[in-house]
Amino acid sequence: MARHGIFAVRDVGSLVGATSAEGTQLKRAVGTTQLTAMGVGAIIGTGIFVVIGKGSAIAGPAVIVSFMLAAVACAFSALSYSELASSIPVSGSAYTYAYATLGELVAWIIGWDLILEYGVSVAAIAVGWGGNLNAFLDAAFGYALPDAISAAPEEGGVFNLPAVLIVLAITFLLVRGVTESVKANLVMVVIKLAVLVFFIVVAFANFGTGNFTPFAPAGVDGITAAAAIIFFAYIGFDAVSTGSEEARDPSKLPLAILGSLAICTVFYVLTVVAAIGIASPEQMAASDAPLAAALDQGAGLNWAAAILALGAVVAITSVVLVIFYGQTRIFFAMCRDGLMPRRLAAVNQRYGTPARLTIILGLLISVLAALVPLGTIVELVNIGTLFAFVLVNIGVIVLRRTRPDMPRPYRVPWSPLLPLIGVAFAVYLMTDLPLDTWLRFLGWLAVGLLIYFAYGYRHSRLRATDDAPKG
Q1: Considering the domain boundaries, does residue 249 fall inside one?
Q2: How much is the pLDDT for 374?
Q3: For 77-86, what is each residue's pLDDT tens digit?
Q4: In the chain, how many domains are there?
Q5: DSSP string across 386-416
Q6: Residues pairing with 247 in the sheet
Q7: Residue 247 counted as domain residue
Q8: β-bridge partners, 160
């Protein structure tokens, strides 16, 4: 195993062996069904309740094709995640895969990127949770929380209390144990799928074909432009790979990753077909809650808005849970490898979780969610995810060449062709992001490089004389 240089690669055996180190050993307590539910929990959130309106405004009824195209774009990267997650069943997801294939510096860059991606994402989703809670209270009881305790200072409030409460509640749940967390997520996934089934059944009971013509008013350009937006409604399946170290049977991770993406694609397509069957693209595009608008204006069922608002609250809660879980496991892996303070990788012996690390991250994210109007910074989530997709696809190709004999419970078919297509899709979508997003992203990476050379390089386990926890 190479121990020198910024591009030193961690041997796969070393990475897997570190998972059994005393004091940093996570419990293998998550089954395949629960892992699949984690993927569904991370993917189905505000996207399905909001993005249909934005997509239909661009592509018209052909937004159905846009949803399918976005799913295909994700599928290539999902295949690569599946191979690496089952072959390297270690916390850290793309960070760990990069460490085993592209070297320590690249691993640090992607890990630092994922910390930003997941942290900003959790804070943003928590803020969205508060907004949807207000929508539910208004629809069901005609009451909404005052701005003073439901909005950031720059938006006329004092602090966002609902966002703080949901982050702290999820923090408590994650500290208590992974078993409790995945069980709670499974319940929430069942509820939000039931809400979507309710919408689909009611919509098909009032279905008409008049809104399907013209089918593609903006042509192919409109379909692909809508797909670029809708792509982000599928983000989340990669969070399943962060739980690979706690999976009872890591060889089943491909089933969970690809299964969750397939389930969400079916629900997305059925939902958008049903929505267009009762409401025009213009009606949905004009509303911040397009599904509720479809039932209200298209089917005349305004009472259903409260049910959909409740479904949105539950859906977003499970997204906060899974994405925050993913961030703690990536940070945990970086700490255990010595690139960040190794004392934070300590696992609580009672709960079997990195409790100290989880609490620290929970407090930091709750402050961010309480005080910062996130706005366009959320685009950093998009560029961070796509960057991870690029490296994971490349990682499959590299590991096939450097470790051809390594056991692989799942292999991406037609490699390197399919991983290269995954890279092409990700790069194409990255080029469509604004310049400001790129500048913020590069600024964050510059800060990360300073931390790596000042701390991570010197404290890395690759260069440590022993494996005793160090600060």
Answers
A1: yes
A2: 55
A3: 999 999 999 9
A4: 1
A5: HHHHHHHHHHHHHHHHH-TTS--SS--TTTT
A6: 30
A7: yes
A8: 150
